[in-house]
Structures are given as C-alpha cells and as structure tokens.
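Supplementary Note 2. Why include the ligand at all?

Several targets in our set were suspected to adopt different conformations when bound, so apo predictions alone were not considered sufficient. For every target with a known small-molecule partner we therefore ran a joint prediction. The input for iron/sulfur cluster is given below.
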Amino acid sequence: MPNDTPTVGIVSLGCPKALVDSERILTKLRSQGYAVSPDYDGADVVIVNTCGFLDSAKEESLEAIGEAIAENGRVIVTGCLGVEESRIRDQFPDVLSVTGPHQYEAVVGAVNEAVPPRHDPFVDLVPPEGLRLTPRHYAYLKISEGCNNRCTFCIIPQIRGDLVSRPADRVLMEAEKLVKAGVKELLVISQDTSAYGVDLKYEERKYKERTVKTRFFDLSKELGELGVWVRMHYVYPYPHVDEVIPLMADGKVLPYLDIPFQHASPNVLKAMRRPAHAEKTLERIRRWRDICPDLAIRSTFIVGFPGETDEDFESLLDFVADADIDRVGCFRYEPVEGAKSNELPGAVPDDVTEERWAALMEAAQEVSAARLQTKVGREIDVIIDSVDGDGATGRTVWDAPEIDGSVFIPHEDDLTPGDIVRARVVKASEYDLEADLA
Ligand code: SF4
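The joint prediction is reproduced in token form.
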C-alpha cells in the first residue's frame, strides 16, 4: 500500500443493522481507493457509527466518540445517536461531521472532505459482495429499514422512520453474491422481518426469468434455494409466518425463529402496544412445532415495564416454560428519552426489577438445559466458527452467532471456519453442547 493512500478507521457500535450500515460505508470508501486501518494511529480519519437505542448505549457511544477524539482527533459521527447532533457537538465540539442512521452518502461525503480520495487507476477492486465485518462464512442480509409498529418503549421508528423494504430481486442478488463469495450462512435481519414488503404492496419483481413477490414467504422460499443456511431474525408471530414453517421442516430454511416477544401478559403487551397476544401465540407455537418438531425459538423479554404486576410477571414465567423458549435474552426496563412508555404510571422499583430479571433468567436456563439434554446422542450438523489447539467451536442450526450457544468438538483442530460437519452430541450444559465428529 503506498504511503499516501488515504486511510479510514471505523468503530461500529450497536445492533447488526448498524453493522450492515458500517459495511456499506466501508464498501463505498474502498471503491474510492481508501484503505481501512485497524487502529487509531494508522487512520487519517475515524468514523464512529453510534447506537442510540437505550440510554446506556448512548453513553457507550459518547465514550467511543471521546476515545476516538483523544486517540486520533479527526472524527466523523454517524448512526442512531447522530439524530441528537447538538448533544454530541456540545460535548465534542471538534467532531468533523454528524449524521443520522443509514446516511451512507453523507458519511462518505464527509470522509471525502476530510481526506480527499487519491486518484489512482490501479486501486484494488472491491469484491462484488462488498466488504463485510463478519467472518467470511456468515453474513447479515438486511431486507428492510424502519418499522411501522409503535411499541411504547422504542424510539426506532422516530430514528429510522417507517418500514422501507428492499425489493425482492435486489435482496436476492445480494444474497447470491454473498454465497458466490463463500458465505455459508445468511442471517436475515430488519426491524420487523414478517412485515417485509407491506410498504411495497408485495410488489412483484423479475428475478432470473421468474416473478418473485416482495413478501416474507416468497423471499424465504427463494433464499431456501441458494443451498446455504438461512436464519430468520426479528420475526413477529403473525398468521402468515405459518407458511414459512414447512420450509423449515423441509430443511430449506433453518428451523430457527428469533421472535422478540418482549412479554406475555396481555396487560403489559397492551401497554407496550405490541402486535401480539400470548394465548394465540402459544397455540401458534404448538402448531409450528407439530409441523417442524425441531424448531428452536429465541426471544427477548423486558422485565420491570411500568405497571407490570407480580401476576403479569408470573404469566411471563409460565409462558417461557409452556412455549419452551429455547434461547432467552432478558432486559431490565430502562426509560429511553423520547419513548411514550416514560409517561406510563406504575414504575417498578429497581430491586423488584432485579429480582424478576434473576427469576426469568433462572427459568429460561432450566428450559434451555432441558431442551439441550434432548439433543444428547443425536447426530447433527455443526457450522465451524473457530479452531484452536484444543479443538473446533461451532454452532448448530438452533444457534445464531454471537447471541446463542455453541458446540465444542474437542481435538479437531484441522477443521476450517465455515466447514459444516456431522457430529454426535455427547454432552449438554445449560447453554452449550459438546460433540464428536460422526
Ligand atoms: S417492532 Fe417495536 S420494538 Fe421493534 S423496532 Fe418496531 S417499534 Fe421498535
């Protein structure tokens, strides 16, 4: 790399959606001849992609900006916290530019202004699948931005706006490029995956001489033909999700649904303005498991929401056990600036929230341990994520990267990340498995 190659550093905070934004920004910059620096010292300018979801995430973002200013001095801020420009500028008057989420062009423009691109006809070509920050064998596939729901604890629609779906042919073309580049697992993400295409009235698009509707089922079916693992995140239990379950039973799409239920009590769900009803949801999950017995469900829940009574919380505990929720993420309720839930009566004292959090985690751990015990003795597919001198670590079809459990295969140090191997489960703990190659 010549010494005068303009170089950017990036600090990417927040959710997988923000990570995809960072990848798009880097892809564009690489195509203009910028190099990417892994540290502050080597960068001419540093981009901080922030998260503004919870107050704690905002604090973390502000700290990251402060560190980048101290370490490098030339900082461009973007992402969800970017909508609070004055807050950022009050604290860090030296930042070069502040933009909100998915304003790729503006970020690239700010970088161009801070460090002009070098004109070089021999700059490296950007790989056609773009640049990714995830390991080569899996990739996030973002199918839409924004959200039409108005959950009272959430400010994402205020930050990211209403649902904007990417037409089906574009998503499929991107997925195909990723697969050609060696990706073995596609993680479908959005704010509300099951609402995909509503804004486009399920528009029909041409893809490979076929007509494909911009619709959750149609997209799932097409992705299922690519011959790689396809994992669905942020799905709501709407009736039409039923159609996708047979694709899971047929092995086209992974038998895994990430459904952020957030609660189970009708009172709390109503106060949260969630698009779901626990009774019907339980029935629906049972039907899904009749069709696809291997289905794993991951969910997140909030405890200590304003107005949550002991009874409400008990019904949440029952739901997690009755619905056999395989993987649970639990959050303590936190008021978020600008959220409607801040005005709700019945604040739950911190110590009660804490007790409920511990009780839910314990109940969830019991369910997870019992579910994993049933896998012992079974032969399963494992995708390898990492290998070291002790052996290989991977995941099952029931585990998403970063958030779920893993499978350890001892002594197998000649496997390669991205390999998909058959293994027999020999041991299960609360969250993880141990297996031997079959
Ligand atoms: S579904 Fe609710 S929690 Fe999720 S992004 Fe939309 S408004 Fe926020």
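The chain has a mean pLDDT of 91. The first strand starts at residue 7 and ends at 12. Comparable summaries for the other entries are listed in the accompanying table.
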